[in-house]
């Protein structure tokens, strides 16, 4: 399986591509950080993020895109930019019929380090070890994107098994829609 992990952001958007599967160690395919100037219009910055991530999707052809689920932070402006960047990434994947998986920061940290509250240095150290890299991915956004991809590689088989075992809830019957009422003018 090939996973494109995305650590969304407007100023720095980490993107990492990792291959792996059952019984196979994760392998780095590509890592990059999309950077946009903070003084540019938000629409232009989102377009740049979308275009660069789309180019990576088209080049590396991932089976799935793993995106960090946005959590509230102290700075509302940062949250908005992060959510908007995540949205354009999800849209780009949907246009290519690539499934999108969302993982929380604590899920990612727990998957790669065994500690859901690990700091960035611990995550970077584990990503470096797991991918058998000679140097640490920099900046942290690059390491976080790779951690997202690794997290998805490891969590998706169990999630699929759980989904197969979980019975689907019966569909609720809903009342038919009310007839349309036309108003004479």
From TrEMBL:
<comment type="subunit">
    <text>Homodimer which binds Holliday junction (HJ) DNA. The HJ becomes 2-fold symmetrical on binding to RuvC with unstacked arms; it has a different conformation from HJ DNA in complex with RuvA. In the full resolvosome a probable DNA-RuvA(4)-RuvB(12)-RuvC(2) complex forms which resolves the HJ.</text>
</comment>
<dbReference type="GO" id="GO:0008821">
    <property type="term" value="F:crossover junction DNA endonuclease activity"/>
</dbReference>
<keyword id="KW-0479">Metal-binding</keyword>
<dbReference type="GO" id="GO:0006281">
    <property type="term" value="P:DNA repair"/>
</dbReference>
<dbReference type="GO" id="GO:0003677">
    <property type="term" value="F:DNA binding"/>
</dbReference>
<comment type="similarity">
    <text>Belongs to the RuvC family.</text>
</comment>
<protein>
    <recommendedName>
        <fullName>Crossover junction endodeoxyribonuclease RuvC</fullName>
        <ecNumber>3.1.21.10</ecNumber>
    </recommendedName>
</protein>
<dbReference type="GO" id="GO:0000287">
    <property type="term" value="F:magnesium ion binding"/>
</dbReference>
<dbReference type="InterPro" id="IPR036397">
    <property type="entry name" value="RNaseH_sf"/>
</dbReference>
<feature type="active site">
    <location>
        <position position="7"/>
    </location>
</feature>
<keyword id="KW-0227">DNA damage</keyword>
<keyword id="KW-0238">DNA-binding</keyword>
<keyword id="KW-0233">DNA recombination</keyword>
<dbReference type="InterPro" id="IPR020563">
    <property type="entry name" value="X-over_junc_endoDNase_Mg_BS"/>
</dbReference>
<keyword id="KW-0234">DNA repair</keyword>
<keyword id="KW-0540">Nuclease</keyword>
<keyword id="KW-0378">Hydrolase</keyword>
<dbReference type="Pfam" id="PF02075">
    <property type="entry name" value="RuvC"/>
</dbReference>
<dbReference type="GO" id="GO:0048476">
    <property type="term" value="C:Holliday junction resolvase complex"/>
</dbReference>
<dbReference type="InterPro" id="IPR012337">
    <property type="entry name" value="RNaseH-like_sf"/>
</dbReference>
<feature type="binding site">
    <location>
        <position position="68"/>
    </location>
    <ligand>
        <name>Mg(2+) 2</name>
    </ligand>
</feature>
<feature type="binding site">
    <location>
        <position position="7"/>
    </location>
    <ligand>
        <name>Mg(2+) 1</name>
    </ligand>
</feature>
<keyword id="KW-0460">Magnesium</keyword>
<comment type="function">
    <text>The RuvA-RuvB-RuvC complex processes Holliday junction (HJ) DNA during genetic recombination and DNA repair. Endonuclease that resolves HJ intermediates. Cleaves cruciform DNA by making single-stranded nicks across the HJ at symmetrical positions within the homologous arms, yielding a 5'-phosphate and a 3'-hydroxyl group; requires a central core of homology in the junction. The consensus cleavage sequence is 5'-(A/T)TT(C/G)-3'. Cleavage occurs on the 3'-side of the TT dinucleotide at the point of strand exchange.</text>
</comment>
<dbReference type="GO" id="GO:0005737">
    <property type="term" value="C:cytoplasm"/>
</dbReference>
<feature type="active site">
    <location>
        <position position="141"/>
    </location>
</feature>
<feature type="active site">
    <location>
        <position position="68"/>
    </location>
</feature>
<dbReference type="InterPro" id="IPR002176">
    <property type="entry name" value="X-over_junc_endoDNase_RuvC"/>
</dbReference>
<feature type="region of interest" description="Disordered">
    <location>
        <begin position="166"/>
        <end position="185"/>
    </location>
</feature>
<feature type="binding site">
    <location>
        <position position="141"/>
    </location>
    <ligand>
        <name>Mg(2+) 1</name>
    </ligand>
</feature>
<keyword id="KW-0255">Endonuclease</keyword>
<keyword id="KW-0963">Cytoplasm</keyword>
<dbReference type="GO" id="GO:0006310">
    <property type="term" value="P:DNA recombination"/>
</dbReference>
């Amino acid at each position: 399986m090939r996973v494109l992990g995305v650590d969304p952001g407007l100023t720095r958007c980490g993107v990492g591509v990792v291959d792996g599967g059952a019984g196979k160690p994760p392998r780095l395919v590509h890592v990059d950080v999309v950077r946009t100037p903070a003084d540019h219009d938000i629409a232009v910055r989102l377009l740049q993020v979308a275009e660069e991530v789309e180019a990576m999707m088209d080049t590396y052809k991932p089976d799935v895109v793993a995106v960090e689920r946005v959590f509230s932070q102290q700075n509302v402006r940062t949250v908005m930019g992060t959510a908007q960047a995540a949205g354009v990434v999800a849209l780009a994947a949907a246009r290519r019929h690539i499934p999108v998986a969302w993982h929380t920061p604590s899920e990612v940290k727990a998957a790669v380090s065994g500690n859901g509250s690990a700091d960035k240095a611990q995550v970077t150290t584990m990503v470096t070890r797991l991918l058998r890299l000679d140097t640490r991915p920099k900046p942290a956004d690059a390491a976080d994107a790779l951690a997202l991809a690794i997290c998805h590689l490891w969590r998706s088989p169990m999630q699929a098994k759980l989904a197969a075992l979980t019975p689907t809830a019966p569909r609720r019957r809903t009342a038919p829609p009310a007839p349309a009422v036309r108003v004479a003018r």
